Amino acid sequence: MSETEQKETVPGVDKHVCTDTLNVLDKGYVKLIDTFGDELTIVNAARVSFGVQKTELSKGDIGLIRYLYRHKHYSPFRHLMFRFHIKAPEVVMRQLYKHIVGIEATSDSSVKDHAWNEISGRYKPVVDYYYPDTWRKQSADSKQASDGVVSTETNVEIKKLFEHHMNNTIMLYEDLLERGVAREQARLVLPMNQYTEVIWTCSAQALLNFIWLRDEGTAQVEIQQYAQAMREMVRERFPTLHDIWFEQVN
Ligand SMILES: Cc1cc2nc3c(=O)[nH]c(=O)nc-3n(C[C@H](O)[C@H](O)[C@H](O)COP(=O)(O)OP(=O)(O)OC[C@H]3O[C@@H](n4cnc5c(N)ncnc54)[C@H](O)[C@@H]3O)c2cc1C
């Protein structure tokens, strides 16, 4: 560390207010509400060990971020935070919920890592559902993935069957609500394509790990599209971080 570097101070963290929204699927979206920190935040978190703080990102700092990433020193990446508003079908949200690291680690609570808040079907009736435009075929060699699409003719038939099923389901749901059944119970008839909304606050580590695992061929196609939207947002705002993280895997 040079003498000059040691004398430099940093005004805590920078705050960027972002309002970008990217539409995903037929009615979903990813909205980046806010970020907290930047690439310098990562560097300064790492350099606090030496009592050094910097105000500008240098070439050496970029090397340090690369070093931290390559040697799995992930904790400095947990000081740069993102807050998203996400609207996605329940089937996608269940997968997204599995990504939890880098939120809060100081309490003994069993949900200490979580920063998820979700719209409640107990307060608000469900109104939106995901209708796939294209139905995919089950992959023969991967138990979980899809592979290719059904024929155009079959796709038309399936879309009709699905619409019929959804009309009946929505009718039943609305009928139960009209009969005075509690929303928390009426929703038992609803399928996994119901849209839900969350606010997700996460660290850069959690986000980049999410993108890495889900913008990938074996992940469900729908969640790949959410990961791609988030990757676009990271690439636009923090290109250095984005390129360092993904040059390792692409
Ligand atoms: C294609 C695919 C299929 C999947 N199928 C299933 C399935 O069938 N069933 C199912 O239950 N889940 C499934 N998952 C979810 C998967 O098991 C993970 O829970 C999910 O991807 C979250 O990943 P993560 O633990 O890396 O994320 P996070 O919890 O956000 O963790 C981020 C990173 O922090 C570190 N970390 C986290 N916890 C620890 C720890 N305890 N010790 C040390 N380091 C830690 C690791 O580096 C980790 O990668 C699937 C995921 C994918 C991508």
Brief overview:
Helices cover 40% and strands 18% of the residues. It has helices spanning 3-7, 39-47, 59-70, 90-96, 152-178, 183-186, 204-214, 221-237, 239-247; strands at 15-17, 21-24, 28-36, 81-89, 116-118, 136-138, 146-149, 195-203.
Distance between the termini: 32 Å
Question: Helicity range of the residues?
Answer: 40-55%
Tally of individual helices: 9
- The poorly predicted ranges are 1-17
What is the CATH class name of the largest domain? Alpha Beta
CATH architecture of the largest domain: 2-Layer Sandwich
**Ligand set:** flavin-adenine dinucleotide
> Helix and strand succession?
HEEEHHEHEEEHHEHHH
Shape: elongated
How many domains in all? 2
In round numbers, the mean pLDDT is 87
- Cα-atom radius of gyration: 22 Å
Record field, number of beta strands: 8
Strand content: 15-25%
CATH topology of the largest domain: Gyrase A, domain 2
Q: Major sheet, described briefly?
A: 6 strands, antiparallel
Which structural class is indicated by helix and strand composition? alpha+beta
